[in-house]
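Q&A FORM
Asked by: J.P.
Topic: structure of Peptidase family M23

PROVIDED:
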Amino acid sequence: MTGSIIGNQNPLVGTTYTYEIKPSGLSFGLKSDYEWYLYKKQKNGIWKDITNKPKRGEKVTYRFGEIGLGIEFQMKVYEIKKGILPGMSATKELAGSCILVPTSDKVSKIEKVILFNRGAKDVNKASYRDTLIAQAHCIAMFNKEIEFHLWEDDAPGKGHDANINKNNRHTRSYKARVNEKGIAEVSIPLMSDEKILRQMANQFLMKGDRNEGANHEYYVTATYSGKIQGASQVNVDVANPDDKGQPQNQPQPKSQPGTQTPKFPTKHGGGPKQPDPKGNIIEALFIDDTGNELSKVAVGDKVRVRIHSKNMVGKHIQYVVWEYDSTSNDEVYRSGNIKIPADVCDTSGFIITKAIFEKGVDSPIGDPDSDKQNYFIEIISKDLSAESQKFGVNSEGLMQVEKVKSAAGVQNTQKPDKPGSCICQEQYKDLIWGGKVSCEFRKKVVQICAELWGENRKMEMANGLMAVMNVETSGSFKAQQLEGWNSTKDPKKMTIKDFWKEGNRKSSRAIGLIQFTQDALQNNLKEYKSNPKLSVEERFDELNKLKLEYAQMGEIKQLDKVKKYFEPQKNNIKSPEDIYLSVFAPIGVGKSDDFILYQKNDNPQNNKEKTSNKNYNANKSVDEENNNDKKIQRREILGRYNISFSRGSGNKPKTFNCENAITIPESSPPKSTKWHDPVDNPMLCLYTQNGNYRPRYNVFGTVRKERSNHNHQGIDFLALPGSNAYACVDAYVEFISIQSGYGNVICLKVKDPKEFLKRKRDFSLQYSNMGEIQSGSGFSFNGDFYLFYAHLQEVEKSLKAKQEVSCGTIIGKNGTSGYGQTKDPHLHFEIRSSATGGGLTNRCHPGIFVYYKDENTMSQKEKDYQKEIAQKFWD
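REPLIED BY: S.T.
REPLY: Here is the structure written out as tokens.
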């Protein structure tokens, strides 16, 4: 007979509830414990055990997030009866169960819609080469689909007039689902639809205007269930390429074709050009004389242009090479007219002379980047009236040109990387204040921000954190930076006396990168606990001992403490400015710029007013620097941060010395362990089956949000058909079979689990905000381990079930069985604690044991290699 569970069966999301089991009878001679399990009802009606670790006791607590809103859960409690007399064995039986359906006390709505240019210094300005970000901030709408539309604004003043702008909506829509943080986000690449957008923007004018002027103004609307629920209030100004600087009260002259432009009429005897709908330029890229693609050259080098076309044989084209700049582009070379001889055409090319290079220099005096340029290609069809097409404008396609030939020389996809290539140069070159710190420091800061706030926001938040640390350390970026000192001391020579403020034995200096205080060490990091049995001075000596450890641990290790400080409050930190507020004035995190943090009060009535008064006095200089109204608003306290951020933009890294860190895995594997990687040079697949660049698809977790089945149960390592798959350790063949979706598979049982565990490392997730996880439910590090290999072309014919195989044995050839043609040929590899199990159950992230290269640690050559592979289907 079971008891009953007491607790709320319709818990509000975000609220913690207590649940209690009431036993129904007596248990003579037995003592009881209770285990709590939670099951989630799937779409097919089957209950799935989602218990990670059972809760224990008669009374427990549960808290459901918004991700569980409206989903049916089943709670089960089992009574574990342990015999207290000799010979009595423990028993386990169901003690109670109930159904839970989380609800929300919030009305579903779109609270705010914003449009901004994430990559720009001014997020409200852009060019047609930029990608805008649209966000809808929602309440109680998890997993709902939001549709965005882009509009050009011709209404005067602030706000939008639907009647005036009725013809200004972009034809394309963008869709996204609301994530667990309540945000739906889409990217809007302007360049892909530049022609359509410019035509739309120039078609209608604001009342009284003669032309569109220097900018086109854009906003977005967010639609749910066919109804517009909100619109962005602040427009993004996109530079108008058609603006010639004419005053708006003067009619703009019509553009005329160039008088020197050759014409190729489509009919004998002349006549107007006619569009050829079958004509198509597919791609254009820079190559060298041997046909290898170029990514970096120097003045004096020869470059050629390769053009891939379709149905263009016999047609005439011209290519133009442009120097790319964030604000303007300069033409550096224009070819003559070229008659397309075949679908793939390699031009004769040209030499990049000093004169050509100087055409791309905007301001050679004082320009730190005047020794380097980036080029892209424009293809102009001479026979057709089709729009010209640009290739290589994005960051992956630009070719870098150096004024002086570097030691690396010309780089292409076929030659190996030179020693000293640095990941910072590829990914962290735009980190503000990056010039003040090491490559290792830069990488660590960005990694921390990716883990705290997600891969998509890592650079945005990393810039904010760097600005904060610059303020807090007075620009030193040193772990031993003491509060109130303009310089740092050798940490080896520091003592606890250095932390006492002069003339005041009851105050201790803050320390380090974000100026850790007693409050931070005691409440945020939980590393200090004041002992009331000690005297005041003794307690401060204990505190200062801990601070001395912080000063002497070095910057890289202290960055782990920085991360630990922000972890409990990461969900409340919505912007880089909030990072600063969480350190300097936590009361202002998430508030508006007008929010009053502290104010002067001559007669405080309560502790809250007294605290505000005390904080005001400590920061009154901030108020005096502004309007001196006896109030300190959020925007005032952010003044130092904004100055730091602005100055940091001029202190980006200029030197890189990672010593080939780009090809070194995150941590080195233990040398004593007997091990062979499952494939040669294990690299994460960067592309999907259809050739889309989406690395997160191929790691472990609920990472495939765009598919009905979000789960990916292992990791996909790049492996061409016919390459070898290896036994990682000494093992036994558990089974060999053919499975739906997996094709030819083999499963090995690890012979020595304890030896296998020596491979275990502290593994950092790259895409935790997008579903990547360490392990699924039921997985255990205590017990057996199974290695599962899938999509094999064939399993080694001599292998049989229960047969022993040694480490490094070739167990099969990699292939594409189970799904056929693909643009990401790979080995699907799993590590399990049970030979069977559905979904993510009983599985862990293979990266805990396999030291593989991800998109942040593989070389550019390896990335280019994967890109090349993804250009065709393999089977």
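FOLLOW-UP: Confidence is low (pLDDT under 50) at residues 246-278, 363-369, 406-421, 659-666.
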